[in-house]
Specification:
With 478 residues, this protein is of the alpha/beta class. It is built from 17 helices and 22 strands. The structure holds 5'-deoxyadenosine and iron/sulfur cluster.
């Protein structure tokens, strides 16, 4: 696990990882799921597993023994989709051995390509979009009769609020809770509004109840997930009201209030969240973070570009100056807060000077980590319709290399600054590299490895950092 940070400075780190969802229970037909892409997809796979285990399935780690294979997909960049197509080819062999095997494509790529996927990838039996997972038992039944089954209906209400996710592949300590679905932002480069539909907020009571249940079951950290958590707003229904009345607003729950409710579950339950949006992140949220020790001091605040003209073309809704003001607010209200970001290089018409603005902003902020990507044109998006993808691949690559090299230096500076300081660490497990060590994270989301002694997952330990590698802090309990 402590390798996670290393991957943070590598292109495609977040959206490219695959994980097999597993679990051992019940009998009957067996399901095997692989998840790709963002944390929301991993969280969705737990909902899918729940829907199917309620319908007599058990889950398996062994693809060979599966009756149903699901692949939960990402469409954010073209190379994410290519990777999934490669994986589908590999499933063909499994299907050769077991004629009754059912292969389903779930998530964003399913939603984007719809029935086209059935034509292009002959081995696929089921295509299901992110809002149609309740229909999976029917779709599987249909596929079992030898027909192709498709449901790519998007919803304005679905939040799966009442579904209790099956926590599979879990360390028993940290878990995701989704708080919103979809996105209304329409950043011009982004396919998500098309694949995940309108933004809906989930009822606060169901979120708090899920956090409470996790805590009662021994979990010690929850991450609240949404495409833009700062726009969370519950006004009595999932879709945000266009013009809420004064009374409705007074009775509403916004993100700062939701954070507080979850933080109050227990001081021993850490609360994290992702992703924040610079245009919507309020000081209220920052003050709530500062008020509760168990809300982690870490913000992932994607900037995308450091140049205001490019940001405007990206339809991000903020300028360089606005973003800098938000960073200053974080530094002022939450001193020592960890900050990470997302960056896209080579967006349509980006000049070299504009790229340098991204470099200078990165230096100014001094990010602890970053996820960095080359611009990849996505069908249907505003940018694809309005702008020419005119930066040569080679230039995109050079710019990407420059931001990656800089981020490696910034992460190194950030890690070295921590040497000599003591942090409260939540232990997550045994270090991959040594059975004699455990690892966990500090509030700022950095991985810290230290000698095991008698510590076990779920313990909070004060650790003095003595050394660091590019990816990890090393220390000892004090
Ligand atoms: N090309 C490259 N990167 C993209 N992202 C989203 N869409 C694209 C695209 N078309 C990146 C953004 C976003 C992260 C999740 O993925 O940086 O914040
Ligand atoms: Fe995509 Fe922008 Fe929504 Fe994030 S906020 S999912 S980048 S449209």
């Amino acid at each position: 696990m402590e390798l996670t940070n290393e991957s943070k400075v590598i292109d495609e780190a977040r959206q490219g990882e695959a994980t097999v969802v597993t679990g051992e229970n019940s009998s009957g037909r067996k399901l095997y799921i692989e998840s790709y892409g963002c944390q929301m997809n991993f969280s969705d796979s737990e909902i899918v597993a729940s829907v199917l285990t309620d319908n007599g399935f058990s889950t398996t780690k062994q693809m060979e023994e599966a009756d149903v294979i699901f692949i939960n997909t990402c469409a954010i960049r073209d190379n994410a989709e290519q990777r999934i197509r490669g994986r589908l080819k590999e499933f063909r062999a499994a299907k050769g051995k077991n004629k009754d095997l059912i292969v389903g494509v779930l998530g964003c790529m399913a939603e984007r390509l719809k029935t086209k996927l059935l034509e292009e990838e002959k081995i696929v039996d089921i295509v299901v979009g992110p809002d149609a997972y309740r229909d999976l038992p029917n779709l599987v039944a249909e596929a079992e009769t030898g027909q192709k089954a498709v449901n790519v209906q998007l919803s304005k209400e679905e939040t799966y609020a009442d579904i209790n996710p099956v926590r599979l592949n879990s360390n028993g300590i940290t878990a995701f809770i989704s708080i919103t679905r979809g996105c209304d932002n329409m950043c011009s480069f982004c396919v998500v509004p098309f694949t995940r539909g309108r933004e809906r907020s989930r009822k606060p009571e169901s979120i708090v109840a899920e956090a409470q249940e996790l805590f009662d079951n021994g979990y010690r950290e929850v991450t609240l997930l949404g495409q833009n958590v700062d726009s969370y707003l519950w006004t009595g229904g999932g879709l945000k009201k266009e013009n809420p009345s004064k009374e409705e607003l007074e009775n509403a729950t916004n993100f700062a209030q939701l954070l507080e409710k979850v933080a109050l579950v227990s001081p021993d339950l850490r609360v994290r969240f992702s992703t924040s949006h610079p245009k919507d992140m309020t000081d209220d949220v920052l003050y709530t973070m500062a008020k509760y020790e168990n809300i982690c001091n870490y913000i992932h605040l994607p900037v995308q570009s450091g140049n205001s003209r490019v940001l405007e073309m990206m339809n991000r809704g903020y300028s360089r100056e606005w973003y800098m003001d938000r960073i200053e607010a974080i530094r002022r209200i939450i001193p020592g807060c960890g900050i990470s970001t997302d960056i896209i290089t080579g967006f349509c018409s980006e000049t070299n000077e504009e790229h340098k603005d991204t470099i200078s902003l990165m230096e100014w902020v001094g990010y602890d980590f970053a996820y960095m990507f080359k611009y990849s044109e996505r069908p249907k998006t505003l940018a694809q319709r309005k702008y020419e993808d005119d930066i040569p691949e080679e230039v995109k690559g050079e710019r990407l290399k420059e931001v990656i090299d800089l981020q490696m230096k910034l992460s190194d500076v950030s890690n070295k600054k921590d040497v000599g300081h003591t942090f409260k660490v939540l232990v997550e497990g045994t270090s991959k590299r040594s059975d004699e060590h455990v690892f966990g994270r500090n509030s700022q989301n950095k991985v810290i490895v230290f000698p095991k002694e008698n510590y076990k997952p779920g313990d909070y330990v004060n650790v003095l950092v003595q050394d660091c590698t590019p990816a990890t802090l090393l220390g000892k309990a004090v």
